[in-house]
Structure formats: C-alpha cells, structure tokens
Amino acid sequence: MDIQSCVNIQTEWDIVAARQLGRNVAKELGFGVVDQARITTAISELARNIFIYAHKGRVCIEKMNDKGHAGLRIIAVDSGPGINDIRLAMEDGYSTSGGLGAGLPGVKRLMDEFQIVSSQGKGTEITAVKWIR
Amino acid sequence: MNSLIINYIDNHKEHILNLWVEKMKEKADERVLRVVSNQVFVGTSREFVEMVTSNLNDENEEYSERLRDFAEKVVKLGWPISFVTEGIQVFSNIVFDGIKEEKLVTEEDEMKLFYGIYKRTNPMTNEIVNVYSTTWERTVSLQKIALQELSAPLIPVFDGISVMPLIGAIDTERAKQIMENLLNGVVKHRSEVVLIDITGVPVVDTMVAHHIIQAADAVRLVGSQCMLVGIRPEIAQTIVSLGINLNQVTTKNTLKKGMEAALEIMNKKMIQVGEISEDSNIKTI
Hints:
Chain A: It comes from Robertmurraya kyonggiensis. Chain A: InterPro entries: HATPase_C_sf, HATPase_dom. The complex is a heterodimer of chains A (133) and B (285). Chain A has 133 residues and is an alpha+beta fold. Chain A has helices at 12-29, 33-54, 86-89, 103-110, and strands at residues 3-9, 57-66, 69-78, 113-119, 123-131. In chain A, helix 1 packs antiparallel against helix 2 (33-54) and helix 2 (33-54) packs antiparallel against helix 4 (103-110). Chain A starts with a strand and ends with a strand. The mean pLDDT of chain A is 90. Chain B is an alpha/beta fold and 285 residues long. The model of chain B has no long low-confidence stretch (mean pLDDT 82). Chain B has a 5-stranded mixed beta sheet, sandwiched between helices. Chain B is elongated and about 95 Å long. Chain B is built from 12 helices and 5 strands. The relative contact order of chain B is 0.08. In chain B, strand 3 (193-200), helix 9 (206-221) and strand 4 (225-229) form a beta-alpha-beta unit. Chain B folds into 2 domains: 2-148, Globins (Globin-like); 155-265, Transcription Regulator spoIIAA (2-Layer Sandwich), CATH 3.30.750. The interface between A and B is medium-sized, with 25 and 22 residues.
C-alpha cells in the first residue's frame, strides 16, 4: 500500500519543510545516509524549481512497496508555465533563471526512476523514485 | 432580547456546558487531543464556558483582561485557532437552538435572537484571534532576529586567515548575507585565505553550490582565496551526481585539514613549544 504525504510549496521555507518530510520518510524506510542525502537533495531541487518557476505547487512523498522491495517516490506538481523544451531542460548547464542548470538532470542522476510530464501554460508533474538497494 | 439571552444562559449553564463539551469533543481532531489530556480538555472547556457567560454579564476592562489571559493560556496549550473559533460558533448554536426549542421567542424574532447572540460572541472571537496572531507575530519576529544573529559570521582566527562556519539551511536571503559578510570581512580583516565550513549545512543542492561558487569568485576578485571545508562523504556524492563543478574552489573534508592548508599558504606552521607536563593547564583544556 502506498502512503502519501504532501507539502505545499509557497515560500522558500516550504522547501525546507518538504525536504525534512522526505528525510524523515527515507529514514523510516531504512535508506542509508548517502541515499538520504540524495533524496533530500532531489526534493530540494524539485521544490525549488516549483518555487522559482511556478511560484506555488505541491511536493508529495510516497512510500512504495513492490513485491517486498521498498522505495520512495517524490511527486512534484505545479500548475505553472510548464517547460518549453524538456530535452533542453534536461541538458546539463541549461538554465533560464541564471542558475547552474544542474537541477533536473541532477535529480535524474540522483534517483533511480525519473519521469517528467509538462504542457505549456498548464503545468508540470515530475515523478522520481528511489529504491532501497 | 438581551436579557432573554442572559437569563437563558444563566439558567441553563450546566446543560449548555455539558452539551458543549460533548460536541467539542466530537469536533476535536487528533491534533488537539494529542497535545491536551482529557482532564485539561474538559477543564479548559469549562473555563471557556464560564468566560462566555461572564461576558454576557459584564463588559468591563476586568473582563477583557481575563479574556486575554485565557486566550494566552489556550495559545500555550497549542490548540489550533480554528478549534477555538469553532468552539465559539458551536456555543452560539447551542444557545440559539436551546432558546428556539423552549419557544422563548416567536419565529419572527428568530433573526433578532441570532443577531443578539452573534453580537455578544463576536468580540470574543476577535479578541482570541487577536491574541493568537500577536503571539505568532512576536514569535516569528523573535525567531527572525535569532536567525539573523547566527546567520553568517566571519571569524578571523590568525593573521590573514578567517573562518565562516555555516549552519542550517541556506536560502536566498542568507546567501546574500553570506556574500556580504564574506567580502566585507575579507577586506576588514585583511584575510588572504577564507575557509567556508559547511559541516552544518544539511543539504547542498545546485542553488547552495551556485552561491558558494559565486562567493568564491567574488573573494578571488578582492584578492583572497576561498577554501570550502567540511564536505561530508554523502554531500560529496550528491555534488558529483548533480554534476556540479567545484574545480574552481579548493576543498577539504575537515576544517582541521583546511586550516593546515591555509597555514601552509601563509607560510606559517604550528609548532609545539616544550613538553606538555602532567599537571599543565593545556592538558586539562
């Protein structure tokens, strides 16, 4: 059974709340210190993207169980402007906000599964999964 | 109408109280019950009802003081404000329904009755919301000040060497302060090497890394060197996964290692002068 808890992202401090939630869930599931850091960093990136580009949205953390294999799913949803060119956004070093441009491709590398759905003017939904090894 | 309401409440005090406590218990969610024991819950509810009825009797300064005390107490108990304001609404409903049931008013006067109760309970809601928000505002502003105090101090440790220990999450506001303190401090203390210690930073994401890189660049522009120390193994791994290039910044895993490197840059060395004797102070420190 999947258990989900969410944090609304509206201010910069909500990013901290989201990643605290993620860290707690990861700890509960028994992720190691390094994976905990990976998960919290991924949440931080996704939540910050929501804050910067969409201004508000939601980050949900889900416990997963696939045939006795435990995992954690991050779902970041917003109804912001959407991503113009996903392929470009997934390229290292590309940023429209003057950042490092390592956020989205970084999250993909930090997590085991990564999925991005975005339509312009409607919003973006990013799902990322990490399994316990 | 007013005297009717007052009389009704005075005569049915116990009945209203019981009904009210019962109804509020139903409404109280986990959050309330978790922070408040049953005894405190009933006791506070009783006090609350006493307060509402006393409000109907007198409207002087003493009362508003009592109300403020009560509100402060509730805030301390950690009850959600929605629960308290809802409590007042439930109370009004009980009184309204009670008077209606006993047919003390005609149907035409029901609106008047409703308004009469509303007019009396409203100031209570206002006062309680007021106390809640003042308490919160005070807490928030105090925390803001406290946070600023431990924001980003630059500490000169040796001639030409300064340390900036960073603890906690770094947001845009703090990143700005880090940059400012760093540059001002470097110039003021004539530091040649600055060590930024991130042992206490829980998460290093691209934004934090970006700010560190920018700070290091700026420090280089004013003629000094920046060293990033306190990089924990898990942080090192996430930085690599993110693909962040920190080649421009010298990094060390501990402040101690960074300090040794900084002394080397300054052509300085720490040496031990003489033996440490058994009873010397150095050992006890």
